[in-house]
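Structure first, sequence second, as always.
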């Protein structure tokens, strides 16, 4: 059975690929990058994935282009619902590639993360799969969260600190700055 795996980053692929391999899937990766900002972050993630994929002999399709503007146009004024748009866009893109490549299934490393909206990913994946005509393979990979983290550290992988979009980068780093300023002001 052929499966196309949407990969957000190499650390999230470690446990996911191992699990799918153990389940007997013929795996190919798909790196979608329009949602990863800034561009330097996108390239760090891509380079880390390329290096890891070579070591485990994983074939990966790397999306061409970099449509930062398209991503922003689609979430502006809907920032509170940006994750839904982003999940849908990534899963739909993966499903379309899977259909062209005659894959039996598609899935995502998003199902590995403890920080993603798991039920929403599952629901969107199933709906997209039905609409496109390729089955969405659901598996809760979160049980391997610590194992994947430990392995990525052992391998010395670049490990990002936010999901990828410019909004999550702001949430990740700006809060820390605000709390430090608030602490200094309150002393």
């Amino acid at each position: 059975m052929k499966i196309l795996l949407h990969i957000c980053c190499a650390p999230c692929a470690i446990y996911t690929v191992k699990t799918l391999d153990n389940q007997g899937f013929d795996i190919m990766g798909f790196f979608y990058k329009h949602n990863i900002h800034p561009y330097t972050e996108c390239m760090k993630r891509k380079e880390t994935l390329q290096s890891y994929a070579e070591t485990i002999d994983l074939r990966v399709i790397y999306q061409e282009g970099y449509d930062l503007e398209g991503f922003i146009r689609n979430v502006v004024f809907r920032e509170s619902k940006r994750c839904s748009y982003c999940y849908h866009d990534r899963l739909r893109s993966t499903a379309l590639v899977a259909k062209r490549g005659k894959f039996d299934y598609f899935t995502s490393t998003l199902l590995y993360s403890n920080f993603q909206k798991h039920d929403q990913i599952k629901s969107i994946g199933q709906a997209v799969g039905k609409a496109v005509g390729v089955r969405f393979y659901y598996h809760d990979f979160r049980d391997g969260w610590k194992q994947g983290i430990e392995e990525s550290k052992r391998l010395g992988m670049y490990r990002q600190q936010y999901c990828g979009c410019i909004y999550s980068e702001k949430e990740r780093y700006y809060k820390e700055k605000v709390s430090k300023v608030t602490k200094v002001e309150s002393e």
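Margin note: Residues 2-159 form a domain with the Rossmann fold fold (CATH 3.40.50.620).
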